[in-house]
Amino acid sequence: MHLSSLSRRQFLGAALVTGIGSLATNQSLAGMPPVVRKPRATDGDERFEPDWEERLSITVGPKTGDIVGSTDKALQAAIDYIARKGGGTVQVLPGTFTLRNALHLPSGIRLQGSGPETIITKIASETVALSEDSDWYDQEITLKKAAGFQVGDGIVLVTKNPSTGSQDTIKHTLVARSGNRFKLNDGLRKNLWLSGKPTVSSLFPLLTSEYTKNVLIENLTLDGNRKNNTNLNGNYGGCIFLQDCSNYTIRNVTTRNYNGDGISFQICHDVKVEHCHSHDNADLGVHPGSGSQRPLILNNRLDNNNIGLFWCWGVKYGLAENNQLNGNNYSISIGHNDTDNMMRKNKITNSGKVGILFRNDARGKNFWANRNTVIDNEIINTVANDGVGIDITGKTSDLIITGNKIFERQQPMQRTGIRIGAEAGSVKLSDNQIQGFMKSIDDQRKSQNS
């Protein structure tokens, strides 16, 4: 009898008799697909992979390893070798590696250090003005003086846009040279005219990638050599900078002393940052950037940055949990259309100005950080005399703030536990403990309406 002619009861009976089993039958009844219990390596199938006991790997170290060296060339050679073989592990041995260019990560790679003894840092930056005009279609620049620039260096070009007056920032690599004249790895696509006072700087992220996925970075220390480098905006760099990537895990990594951000990822989805220590960076400790979906920021320490955790534009369905944030100017900042995120069980101490700031990003109709949840956090002490534990500004709405302990253990001064701006929408407060402030709750909506 053909399967199509079997009754539903006959088919279920046949399934049980032939060993398909009750579990598969129950899944079928529930409309669920079968569970993959014995994955095989199948060409093109990246979702399921056997848990292999041994994988392709290569070691690199300053004195020993499959590749010996302490520069970006040695590290990138190991990375590229693994990439050409289809993926695997680059094991970075103990030692200090000093980069003149960023390490570019491909898909399917595991970049693993040997713990705190593996330190990746960078050269001191130099900034030099250009001496000749370069048009948008050019692939070369001319410097007033070559200074310490070398072929292979990562650079950032900055100029005033001749049409809009805004600043253009361009990242490239120097690939050839004649005197002060350098060829770039790609076309400029921006006009570098002397009227815009263009400069070139030896700035770059330490680790970077674009349009890649399924990468693990762990057990490394990344040091940005902050005191010897000029600032690079977190939309272009950081100790780690990712653009248009997905399924990254950054684990047990220290990102420190960068004149910019520690960890920044833009339009990147399903990025997990866990058990990391991002500290003493000039700008942001962890920066889930524009449009990033479902970031997980778990069990990290974010200390002494300008902002510890910065939810950028349109970051949604993220979770920040069990993080310790100490000594940041603003410990957590959330704003421009960052919706449906949860901040839970974080410990925030000694914020310079604000523990958690809901920014007033008044750029459009619904550009505020709506529908976010703040639950079971500890917020203890602010440095500023007028510091605020949780500050809700603009037209931010539909917040749930519950079960938090917001304590000021110094003198109350002009400090406030929770401040709700006059234009704010619905804010549900419940079961919060607030102690030691001049004002526990300053709801300016009430005073506005009274």
From TrEMBL:
Domain Right handed beta helix as annotated: residue spans: 228-362
UniProt keywords, alphabetically: Lyase, Repeat
Any Pfam family hit: Beta_helix
Gene3D superfamilies, sorted: Single-stranded right-handed beta-helix, Pectin lyase-like (2.160.20.10)
GO molecular function terms listed in the Swiss-Prot or TrEMBL record: lyase activity
Tagged with keyword Lyase: yes
Coiled-coil portions: none
Entry-linked PROSITE patterns: TAT (PS51318)
Name this protein carries in UniProt: Pectate lyase superfamily protein
Species name: Gimesia aquarii
